[in-house]
Structure formats: C-alpha cells, structure tokens
Amino acid sequence: xxxxxxxxxxxxxxxxxxxxxxxxxxxxxxxxxxxxxxxxxxxxxxxxxxxxxxxxxxxxxxxxxxxxxxxxxxxxxxxxxxxxxxxxxxxxxxxxxxxxxxxxxxxxxxxxxxxxxxxxxxxxxxxxxxxxxxxxxxxxxxxxxxxxxxxxxxxxxxxxxxxxxxxxxxxxxxxxxxxxxxxxxxxxxxxxxxxxxxxxxxxxxxxxxxxxxxxxxxxxxxxxxxxxxxxxxxxxxxxxxxxxxxxxxxxxxxxxxxxxxxxxxxxxxxxxxxxxxxxxxxxxxxxxxxxxxxxxxxxxxxxxxxxxxxxxxxxxxxxxxxxxxxxxxxxxxxxxxxxxxxxxxxxxxxxxxxxxxxxxxxxxxxxxxxxxxxxxxxxxxxxxxxxxxxxxxxxxxxxxxxxxxxxxxxxxxxxxxxxxxxxxxxxxxxxxxxxxxxxxxxxxxxxxxxxxxxxxxxxxxxxxxxxxxxxxxxxxxxxxxxxxxxxxxxxxxxxxxxxxx
Length: 501
What we know:
The chain has helices at 3-11, 20-32, 37-44, 68-77, 84-91, 93-101, 155-162, 181-186, 200-213, 262-269, 271-274, 295-303, 322-327, 337-346, 381-393, 399-405, 448-455, 463-472, 482-494; strands spanning 82-83, 105-107, 114-117, 120-124, 127-131, 169-175, 190-197, 218-222, 234-239, 275-290, 310-321, 349-361, 370-375, 409-410, 414-423, 426-436, 440-446, 498-499. The N and C termini lie far apart (64 Å). It has three domains: 3-131, no CATH class; 155-321 and 352-396, 3-Layer(aba) Sandwich (Rossmann fold), CATH 3.40.50; 404-499, Alpha-Beta Complex (Outer Surface Protein A, domain 3). Helices cover 35% and strands 25% of the residues. An eleven-stranded mixed β-sheet has the order 8-7-6-9-10-12-11-13-17-16-15. Strands 1-3-2 form a three-stranded antiparallel β-sheet. It is of the alpha/beta class and 501 residues long. A hairpin with a 3-residue loop joins strand 16 and strand 17.
C-alpha cells in the first residue's frame, strides 16, 4: 500500500458519536486503568507529554504489555496495534467492547487477531482528547492530512488553555476549536460554551471529545469563524489561530494566510459585533511589529471606528528580529524561508512576537488601555487578567490617591545590579538596573533614589510613606508632585518588580 493510500485508509477510520451510556462506559475503562495525564507522564519518564521522544522499556513495538495502563498507552498514545487477547485480558472483554462501541477500538486489517485505536487519544489536565493518528498500527509514519486534527498536548496549546480565565461567565465562544479541549476545560466556568471550526473533521472530533468528557453545556458547530453563531453575543471569546505564513492552505490547523495574521485579524474584526460590553477576548499566537506600526496599532485598526471602546494588552513569550527568525528556521521549513523573507520585507516586519493578546470591551467613559509585558515562567490567566485589571484600576477617578495608599512589596524574583565608577578616588554607585525573573519578566534602569524607594517596600508601609521618606532625606525635592511619584508605581507593578497584596 502506498504512503498516500495508507494515510487515506487510516484517515477514514474514525471514532463515532455515542449515547451518554456508551461514553460513560468508555470513560470507566480509561479511569479504572489510571489513564491520567500525571500517570502517563510518569510511565513515560517525562513531566509533560510534549517532551516524549522514545518509549521506555516495556513499551516498545516488540514488547508485550502487562498492565491496563500500558495497553492504553500502546493503543492510543503510540497508535500501535495490540493483540486482541491481550486487550481483553488487560482491559477486560467488557472494557474492550465499550471501546469498540464507539469505534475507538477496531480490528487491524493487516494483522489478524490484533486491534488498534482508530484515533490518537491522550489524557490532558481536565479531559481526554482524541485527534488524528499519524502512523499505521505497525509504527509506519504517514504524516497528517490537510484537514488533520492536531493533538492538544503541545506546549502552545497548553499555554493557551492556561491563559483562559477560571472565572464565571454566561456565554463563551471558542473559534477554531480543533479537538475541543479548550472548550471542554472552560465548560466548568461558563454557563454555555459554543465552539466552531471550519473543518468538518475538527468539528466531528470536538463533538466526540465533548461527549467523551460528559459535559452538557458545550455546543460544537461546523462553519467559518463567527458564521455558525450569527446573531449571538458572548462575554468571553477565545482563539488559538493558525499563524504560519503560507501561499496556500496546506494544513488547516497550521496555515494563517499570506502574512500569518489573516485568521487572527478576522477574529478581531468580529469583536465589535460579537463581544458584549465588559467581555474579554483571548488569543495565543505569533504576530508582528512592523515599521511604524506595532501589533497593538494594527489591532486597533481592525477593531474599526469603535476601537476607543476596547483595551488591548499584548504579553510576549518570545520576541525575535526577522533576521534571527530566519536564521533559526528548521531544516524542514527551509523551502518556506524565501517566501517568508519576501512577505516580511514587503510588510516591513521588524520583529515577530509569540504570546498572548487580551482585548477587553469596556463599558464606561474612560481612557483606553494599551499595555505590553513579557511573560516569564508560570505566567497564566491570573497574571494576564491581573495586568489588565491593574491598568484599568489606575485609570479610574481618584487613582493617584489609591496609588499613594497602596502597600507594595518587592517581588520574590527581583534582582538588583549596581554599577560603580571612580569619583575623587572612591568607587561611587552611579547607576542601578533591576531585573525581574518571575511570571512577568522585565529589566529596567533606575535612578539611585528610586532604588531606595523600592527597598523600603515591605508590604506594610504605603507608597506615600516612601514619598515622604525620600523628601525628608533630600533624595527628591519637596516640590516634586506626590501625584507624579504615585504614578511611578504603575510601571513597577505592571513590570512585576513590586506586587500588591
């Protein structure tokens, strides 16, 4: 069988929708076997599934599995066949029958007496998720089809889900749902979740995963972007869009149009119609800063005439100059590099950003928020929403007084470097630089008087106390406005150098 024919054959093997009872019976097979994210990672000797490289002893192609967990890993994580007698012994005949009822388990036509998993299926924190397999049951790889459903266990997808808020909302929409993992995870906090995908195959997998998860407040619809939910509005909208620049759409899950931003742009353009007042939009993607036009400025242009009613926050995980991005192109993408170079030159792209975008539709009359920060280790939805909430708070009436009454403390990951120079024969400090290593990362130069102000932040004394102390010590002149000093706290908190209780 040719590679193309092999791919087409296995591509046609899909799990099928079931009844609530059938889904429950299948869940019990996975639960009773300990098929959880933590236990699978431990069995594979890794702490995250995306770090998997090679099977540990006992899980190779030629090994005979001896535990129910190993049987499920072999069938659904590795996509390899398993002898039927072993499947029925380890999973029980009733368990094997429950998986067959959903067409998750099927006879291997190339190996009589063996069965295989019709989909790749892995446990993630919060849900089992099925996606397309990329190899035949004997381990022969054949790659992904153009409409292939990409697995949800990679770092970028997990980061996207970790940055969706775990707070109550009435109605949520996920655009381009793929496996439906984000929609399923969000269902516990939303009154109802709507999930759309332009690919019929993705919509089918997502609906299957919703059924397997046993959640009743998620509706999956096939269609392009907002089209399936025309007439509805939402107080939370999310998207993890395809963002790779491409001449043509070879892979639906990957290719984001000629400049990589076209799908994201369409999502933003729909916000004035579909996002409710006080609603928020979340995205994780790659985008760009261009000569004379930052990403935030382009977002505002896409929002149209109502852009002043929206706040825009960009948090970068990585920021690379175009020349560095081209230098780091992997071997498999070498053929795309000339096209990418031409697109980035034509658009006058200066740097590529990978990270989060948060857009908030504010309901009141106030100045809009534009903010940018850099994410560090452990950055999640609390830090993302907290950054925006802080920026909104400091724009409210009476903000200067509020700032002066704040009782900040130094962040745990704050580091200070002081430079000295020889003055009149003595080494004298002349410049300081703070570096913050934490969920929010930043680096900034500081005058020495500000160093003393920061050092005094213990969570007990107020920012007004810091101001009064500096004036008394002659570090700042008595005519220095307290309001001006108050607003210095905004950047120190946003940058992660100081935190508030």
